[in-house]
Fold this protein.
Amino acid sequence: MLTVPALWAQTSTPRKPAEVRFSSDMLDKSIDPCTDFYAYACSKWQAQNPVPADRPTWGRFNELQERGEYIVKDILEKAAAKSAGRTLAEQKIGDYYASCMDEGAIEKASKKPLRGDLKSIAALKSKGDLSKEAIRLHREGTDVLFSFGSGSDFKNASQIIAEVDQGGLGLPDRDYYFKDDEKSVELRKKYVEHVQKMLELLGDAPAKAAEGAKAVMDIETGLAKGALDQTSRRDPLKIYHKLANQDLAALSPGFDWNAYFTGVGAPKFDALNVAEPDFVKQMQTVVDAHSIDDWKTYFRWHVVHSNAPVLPAAFVNENFEFFGKTMQGTKELRPRWKRCVSYENGDLGDAIGEIYVNQTFGAEGKARTLAMVDALEKALGDDIKSLPWMSDDTKKQALVKLAAITNRIGYTDKWRDYSKLEIKRGDALGNSQRSNQNDLQRRLNKIGTKLDKRDWPYPPMTVNATYNPLENNITFPAGILQPPFYDNTADDAMNFGGIGAVIGHELTHGFDDQGSQFDADGNLRDWWTADDKKKFEERTSCIKDQYGSFVAVDDLKLNGKLTLGENTADNGGMRIAYMALMSALAGKMPPTAGGLSAPQRFFLGWANVWCQNRTDAIARMLVTIDPHSPGKNRVNGTVSNMPEFREAYHCKADTPMVNQNACRVW
Ligand SMILES: [Zn+2]
């Protein structure tokens, strides 16, 4: 499916931080803002907020997210403790939480909850049985072979169709299987050791487990060979291939797709999006190349991998050793309750969310946010009209698209239905698997139906924001409409630099290298003239080169191409937020506050959001998979392109925060 551009990549969830409002005491006045604006705004925060032992990163986002975690914890504990008169939702969220928290029962059950999975895998006789087992595993949420779900038809976006996509890998991206630098080679070695240890925990003798881990690595490397990398997947044309069912069957004749579709619970359909046909072909090659015994081992690995969080401590710890410590540089496992909150937000998010918004989200927050969205949309319209490089024809279409954008603020009007989902107290693993099954069924039921824009991609406590090109809408959940993004006690300058720039960021996604390929109705249709596209690319290549020269960690530079869309959105978002602020002030510049002018506070509103620390390991990982640049670059990269910044801080032309070759798209 199309990866919808989010504001940041969440790497983990949530100490109970107090709400921190901006004050000029947070600035490091020994640093010249024209030399390193990020250090001026964030170095004090960074020194006072090291990455906690149980996390790979820590930033202002995480502080906000963690405050939300405490609210959710409270909701769940109350529901878990209540015995009589529970609502249906309280029963589900309370029993799920109690089961997840009951480590004693989980230890006592040992591997028993996996018995059904392991028995079914052991009974596989031939490769003809693979489709049958894929059905069972996909339904309980175990990612093997490929992934299956539903999504908008790119060329007819109001219609939901079935989608087959790449999948079945244990490492986060196909590139992990092929990069040949020393660190990547070492990581693969440790991954194979990890797979071996997990197989040993399932009961395999060490020699057999070692052999099995090697087979798993061979199979996954084979699958990865057919998969596209993250940069390529940003191009919608590379992940949209509408095929008739029989054309899919021709790509992998050894796999019984018809049996799969029926068995997995999809309604009947004749055509679907095969996102990556080469992947499906390659999958068949890999199926043919390995024995049924190798496939059984691969399935057993994925079962234990995907269920590890709700298995006994030995599994949880080994899983953390590799995916937490080795991969992300996290020192300690998060406390149990934080993990349970995070799993439950994923599995029963809307049931929790409905209670969460009643407790936290007021009408005022929604009204002020909507007013800001309107101001930002108007500024973007003015900006488009004045662009020197865009032709009138394209401008006209851009304005049509802008006017068609719909805004979703706070929370959904249509909560997800969990009535058919059985949550049993004392069955943590079963609850997790049944939740996955319920969610897959929800997505499959949409196949053949019209797009329902009331379906939100995440629950309201999420600290993030998105623009979806297939729906041409922006989503701002209640979770992000709080300090440091939005502060109802702060003045416009700070709020426009914070949530205002984020709104602008999301809006410009509708017009960037990816969004410009979709029209006002969300259909994949290029509405740019070739000449405009060329000029756009000339301008974005400036941003690609600028960010591609930034060092992320050690000698590893950012991938200018992978991060292009997000960097363009940051630069565009700040530009239109500044325009919107100036028009809100209507020529009446407010007095300085804390010795800072309104334009200075605006830029601090932006920097304030991005203060963060991260481990070297995760910084390395994110360079490969994250389309977002690190906070430092999001701040310094953007302000150095803005003459308004230079003016606000009286920077001399030869200072580092003045990009000699300033990039500007929007
Ligand atoms: Zn974005």
About this structure: The first strand starts at residue 57 and ends at 59. The CA atoms of residues 327 and 421 lie 34 Å apart. Confidence is low (pLDDT under 50) at residues 11-15.
